[in-house]
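Please, structure for the following, as tokens.
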Amino acid sequence: MPSLSRRTLLLSAAAVSVPGVLTACSTGSGDSDVSNAGKKLAPWPAYKPASGPKPDLAATEAGVQAGYTAYPTDLVRSVARTPGDGSTVKVMSVSFGTPPKPASANRFWAAVEKALGVKIEYTIISQADYQKKMATVMAGDADALPDIINMFSGFVLPREAEFVQRRAEDLTPYLSGEAVADYPNLAGIPTHAWKDMGRIGGRVYGIPLERPLPGSTLWTNQGMFADAGMKEGWTSEDFAAVAKRATSGRTYALGAAQGSLFGNAVHSSAHNAPQNWAVAKDGTFQPGCADDRYKAAIAFQAQLRKNGSYYPDATSVSQIDLTTLFYNGTVGSMQDGFGAYLPKYRETQGKLTPAAALPYSVGGEPGGIVAARRSFGYTVLKKAKKERVELLLRILDYLAAPFGSQEWELVHYGVEGTHFTRGKDGSPVPTELGEVENNTNLPWKYLAEGPQVLFVPGMPDAVRALHAWQQKVVPLAIRDASFGLQSRTRNAQGTTLKAMLDDAVTGIVAGRLPLSEWDGVVKKWRAQGGDTMAAELAKDYAANT
């Protein structure tokens, strides 16, 4: 890997399909034992919630998030001293924004550098190019690795765990158990995030990016769907009827993007199908694709498409373009992560009211929702001497500051008077400069971040609606039993095997393949690695329970 310049590198945003390239890349021996089975398991970091302003809407142990209907007036200070030593730190993360201005002309960049006490060389990778770039990084020279690397969970990177085990610093001595107390903000990351990140070979190698329990969500244009008959307690038949009534002319009730399988996660969970993997009482792992409810969800989606309720270009439009179609009213709904609520409320203000849909029931059974992996990826460190590792951890501890702290405000909004002003309720309001220099284009939040809370600046009713929705659906969440577990076969072949199933789902819903093909695809998937994955996951699950 070539040396990194002080200037930001944003790789091409063109979509690239690279499973073959990724599979061919190697991090050394494919026999690395990343399983947790038979290992002494490092204790998870001892959780100690950060002190801060009390939420207006309480969190629950089950997974409902804390909600803030107004921005805190008295911000706490969560870091006692400047963490850095004036040295240069190279970092790398995924990005969902546009290229930021270079550091020399970016006051947001300069402000965070000053607060951290280091110079930051930031390699920013667009989501579309993430797999291809990471293949190069993982196959490259260990000495050329950035100091801090974000491992984004949106893709399966072949031999990812093996790469981390061989090339990244083992953080167990620094973070496991009570050791994390040296980094109070990292100690404030809930245990569920560490568990869903998982151990590798029994050790803790990363720092998770905590995320809320609800995952893929059907975001609707509330007015459009209500006018078409949407109601609480609707059935799958009601859903199909509403989608058909809401579709007219060049307006379509259901939007979907390339790779989303026509919003399959939302529909399969409503059918109560396992989300990828379920664990039986005897500890065996059952693949969701082999469940009759999953097949029924595919058939239901195929009928929705046949009814004309889906946007015609659902297999080719990008998620970014689909979002634009949702905002301008061309499509009445779209599948997106729950965490996308903030831009949806902000960008549609005055145009439409977004709403997270409640699941429909199927055959009299209340529908479920997708339980997200509670770790939106994780951050690893390049192997280094103890003093350097501690420096990097102090930097991440600063970036992991909780909501309601001075550090959180700087990392998320920049400098008051330069990047934001205050709204009537005290909420940060981006200035013209803040619309360009921000945490989307310069994504510090993908290196480390404090626990997520519900907050929409200046929109308390939105926070109340989201909190009420979570109270209803969190008990219905369907969790992928493989979160946080290791499987050598999945690490090596997961991308190819997933593509086999995804292509079949898309083909059937689009009408290119008959539903009768599904059982054969599942049989092939099981024979080529699915059953082996199930056995490996069951073994790792047993070691972790």
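The CA atoms of residues 355 and 465 lie 8 Å apart. The first helix runs from residue 19 to 24.
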